[in-house]
Amino acid sequence: MSIAFLVTTLIAVATPGTGVVYTLSAGLSRGRRASVIAAVGCTLGIVPHMVATVTGLAALLHTSTLAFQALKYLGVAYLLYMAWATLRDKEVIAVVEEAASLPAAKVIVSGVLINILNPKLTIFFFAFLPQFVNAGEPGSILRMVELSAFFMMITFVVFTAYGVFAASVRDHVISRPQVMTWLRRIFAGSFVVLGAGLTFA
20 to 30 A from 11, CA-CA: which of 4, 153, 161, 196? Predict the structure, then answer.
């Protein structure tokens, strides 16, 4: 595994995006357990990108403007929905004593959807990952799977670190209603900015 791939993976994962925002929100609102569950969901959301790349959908989206535009605007729509839901529902970031109060399945599904429609992942898997694999050589498919698995592992570790950190400071933040109001606005605004960036990409 090349140093270039390792560095690129760390940068791609650690750069704040939709998955990071979602995991931080889970950690602040429902604690450490919820943040880890959110990280699991975001990590599982990588699987469709990996499968699409390995099975050749990358080539289809590269040659089909319509397919790429459809995927892009679907992602924009979901990001705007997340912004609206964050502002509308005060329980998205609120004091919750038990992390289990929100079903783990719901947290995971949201995380999966966020990363399925994450443009950063689409770019990484559809355009960048194949550059580290020699398609003509035997075992190239297995090599892609290995690199994707490493990317998923790093995603889980980094996102969990983000979430656990957020959970560790929640007592200092959640007790202040005004701070919580602004946090909801910041998270919602982050989704809007990410959606706008995808729109004009």
Answer: 196
- According to DSSP, residue 127 is labeled I
27, 162 Cβ separation under 8 angstroms: yes
Give the count of alpha carbons within 13 A of 151, CB side only. 27
The phi, psi pair for 2, rounded to 5°, reads: -75, 155
Cα–Cα distance for residue pair 88/189, rounded to 1 Å: 13
Tell me, what amino acid is at 23? T
Angle formed at CA 158 by CA 187 and CA 49, multiple of 5 degrees:
85
Q: Is 56 left (phi over 0), alpha (psi -120 to 50) or beta?
A: left
| 130-134 LR contacts (CB < 8 Å, sep 24+) | 130/53, 130/58, 132/2, 132/4, 132/5
Joined tokens for residue 200: 């004009």
pLDDT digits (tens, 9 = 90+) for 93-151: 444 444 445 688 888 988 898 888 776 677 777 767 767 776 566 777 788 888 889 99
CB 193 within 8 A of CB 51: no
What SS3 state is found at 180?
helix
User: Could you give the CA distance from residue 190 to residue 201 in angstroms, rounded to a whole number?
Assistant: 16
Residue holding tokens 């950063």?
Answer: 120
pTM of the model: 0.69
**Sequence-distant (≥ 6) Cβ neighbours of residue 76 within 8 angstroms:** 195, 198, 199
